[in-house]
Design brief:
Elements: H1 2-17, H2 26-34, H3 38-51, H4 56-70, H5 72-77, H6 88-99, H7 103-109, H8 116-133, H9 136-152, H10 162-174, H11 190-228, H12 230-238, H13 241-252, H14 255-265
Length: about 270
């Protein structure tokens, strides 16, 4: 929550510097939503849509904010009408929020024929829709699928899409994010189970590749140490578990920690 407060201060400062940004700060609307300031979030999104009438996602986020305040039925009556959305998947998502029929979006989110981006957005907005409806388990399942599926495909998780990181933030704030999770928690949805079964081989391949890379790095460091100082390295290699512990931290930590542990190993 501290990061959210800092973000809001940052956006407020940006608006003070340039008041024209007030109707373009959709990221502030998202921050307000997750900070629980739903009335302010709804106003931010409605103001933004007034300047950009074709922004489907801001219309949906306005719905989500109003749903937290008044419920989905009232939010649906007040939902901002949008025309001109070019992305087919977002047209379907918008229709789902308008009429409450989730079936078409569920098919996209679990389809092997859909694009990586379409599957991600379909699963993400299904999760957000079910949260607005008060179904926490369904919301959790669909957003977990969006995150897990993104790790299994051709690299959508690495696309740096803002909404992918929003999905991760959502999962963390709701308490169900698991790094490198292969399997979802129990779900009653047959569609989600079938999708997980279909992507699991890709996930396993990714994790095997990561393991091989780490193993090669460890082997290379070991060889370097043996050449650098034969007696010292052999003692570390066969006697001290500290050596392997440092290598593990070296591979899993940030840049500063990597430098520290590398110096420790080469002392």
């Amino acid at each position: 929550m501290e990061k959210l407060r800092n973000l809001l201060l940052f956006f407020d400062s940006a608006e003070k510097i340039n008041p024209k940004l007030s109707t373009k700060l959709w990221q502030r609307g998202l921050s307000l939503y997750y900070a629980g300031k739903y009335s302010e979030a709804a106003k931010q999104f409605s103001d933004d849509v007034a300047q950009n009438p074709n922004d489907t996602e801001e219309s949906i986020w306005n719905f989500l904010s109003l749903a937290q305040l008044y419920g989905t039925d009232a939010a649906r009556k007040k939902m901002i009408r949008i025309q001109g959305e070019r992305r087919p998947v977002m047209r379907e998502v918008y229709t789902m929020f308008r009429d409450g029929n989730t079936k078409p979006i569920e098919k996209i989110a679990t389809s092997n024929k859909a694009t990586d981006a379409d599957r991600f957005y379909a699963a993400l907005y299904l999760g957000l829709y079910f949260e607005a409806c008060g179904d926490a388990q369904a919301s959790r399942d669909w957003i977990q699928l969006a995150l897990v599926d993104s790790k299994s495909n051709t690299g959508y998780a690495k696309s740096r899409d803002y909404m992918y990181y929003l999905a991760k933030t959502h999962a963390k704030l709701r308490g169900f994010y698991q790094k490198d999770s292969v399997l979802l928690t129990y779900t009653s949805s047959k569609q989600i189970r079938r999708r997980i079964i279909s992507i699991k081989p890709n996930l396993i391949t990714i994790y095997i590749r990561k393991f091989c890379i780490k193993f090669c790095v460890c082997l290379s460091l070991t060889f370097f140490l043996l050449v650098y100082n034969n007696i010292f390295s052999i003692l570390l290699l066969f006697v001290s578990p500290l050596y392997w512990w440092c290598l593990l931290l070296l591979l899993r930590s940030n840049q500063n920690s990597r430098t520290f542990f590398l110096l420790l190993l080469l002392r």
